[in-house]
Specification:
Elements (H helix, E strand, L loop, with lengths): L4 H11 L2 H7 L4 H12 L2 H12 L1 H17 L3 H8 L5 H6 L5 E6 L5 E5 L2 H11 L1 H30 L5
Antiparallel strand pairs: 1-2
């Protein structure tokens, strides 16, 4: 399989991991280390990575993409590994563990996995996107207005003047 320097650089900028980049581009974990060393030593790949890094808009897009993956991404691969009796090395290496923040072996032979907080990822996503921020601010305003009027109605009913 042939990978162009530009294609490798684009994926590398997203992952910041040469081996993971190679695996995502279709190479086996064994081939990944060799491809990583080969590609990251090429001047054309280094230039492409520098160019991509200098483009802040694209970097912001990758941050948003990562936060979106954390907020809405699947944890099926992680759950499958967690409940598998004896997962193979290949299953572990090919699993999408992006949403996993921590893996621990527990005394007694178990495994504990912690996942990133989806709510925090959504909050950060709203902070980074001006359009979402405006919608969020408008929603908070409407909630305050309608929530406040509901509180007033309840107060009037509880302490209001009405005939029994």
């Amino acid at each position: 399989m042939k990978i162009t320097p530009t294609r490798f650089a684009k994926m590398f900028v997203r992952t910041r991991n040469g081996s993971e980049t190679a695996v995502r581009l279709g190479f086996s974990p064994e081939e990944a280390k060799e491809l990583e060393a080969d590609m990251l030593s090429k001047a054309s790949v280094k230039r492409a990575i520098r160019k991509l890094d200098s483009d802040d808009i694209q970097n912001l897009c990758y941050v948003k993409t990562g936060l979106s993956r954390l907020a809405f991404g699947s944890i099926n691969d992680a759950a499958a590994l967690l409940f598998a009796d004896e997962p193979t090395r290949e299953e572990v290496l090919s699993a999408d563990l992006f949403n996993v923040s921590e893996i621990k072996k527990v005394k007694g032979g178990g495994v504990e996995m912690k996942f990133f907080d989806r709510q925090k990822a959504l909050e950060k996503l709203v902070e980074l996107d001006p359009e979402l921020k405006e919608v969020s601010a408008a929603q908070e305003f409407l909630n305050a207005v309608y929530g406040g009027s509901q509180d007033m109605d309840e107060t009037e009913i509880e302490g209001g003047d009405y005939d029994e």
